[in-house]
Amino acid sequence: MPSLSIVVASMNRLAQAKVFIPTAASAIGAADEIVLVDADDPENVSSWALSLKEPKLTIVQVKPLTWFEPNRLRNIGIRNAVGDLVIVSDIDFLMPQQLLTQCRALELNHFLVQPSVIGSYGWLCMWWTDWRRVNGYEEALSGYGYDDFYMRDSLNQSGLKMVLAESRCAPIGAGTNARSYPDDKQTTTHHVNMRLGKALRILHNFRGNHARNFGWGGEVLQRSEARNNAGETRSQLSRTWWRG
Fold first, then answer.
1. pTM for this one?
2. Which CATH superfamily hosts domain 4-229?
3. Domain limits of the chain?
4. Residue 74's pLDDT band (boundaries 50, 70, 90)?
5. What is the side-by-side order of every strand in the sheet holding 4-10?
6. For residue 50, is pLDDT > 60?
7. Is the distance from CB of 106 to CB of 142 less than 8 angstroms?
């Protein structure tokens, strides 16, 4: 069975983290690892997470940000993840057990998304190697609006098959639309970012798969038992380009 990591980004999201992390760690059929990427902030989410002493938790802290940059933090989290499969989730989602079960059964060359509603692509499950294959999340899309759609479209256009989840996450707190948080950078419109994203994808594809460095940065404050036990083998899938 492939290993599974959940990657979640946080900035001033302590209330949501206090629900998301314990719930994800204790769920039936839970992931092997939860990677929390936290932008150091006044709410001290990293300090709270360290106090849990949760063996499934990897904690990566980045320097304080002016605005929440979800795609940058997602890439950092995935680079640090040990799982063959990676769930990328907004921190204000609760995942039902059916979603975890469906992720575990995901076939190669497939990726899993929620049925399309506002904010739904803030949750996605893919193979770790496919994240690398499509050059990761586009960090130039620094705010909200097409930031998560970009990954879905990149995976789809690379020839992978999109699978719709049989169940949907439930919202925590402010809900599934992250624009409702006061510290989120407001993008112009979804359509402007969509045009920018498509242009950037063409450029990256032209320059080649290894033309960009992404997912670097941050300080690992705690490593999960899954990460420590993986050693140099890392996973059943080849990751020879990376040495953690």
1. 0.82
2. Spore Coat Polysaccharide Biosynthesis Protein SpsA; Chain A (3.90.550.10)
3. 4-229
4. very high
5. 161-164, 110-113, 123-127, 85-89, 4-10, 33-39, 57-62, 219-222
6. yes
7. no
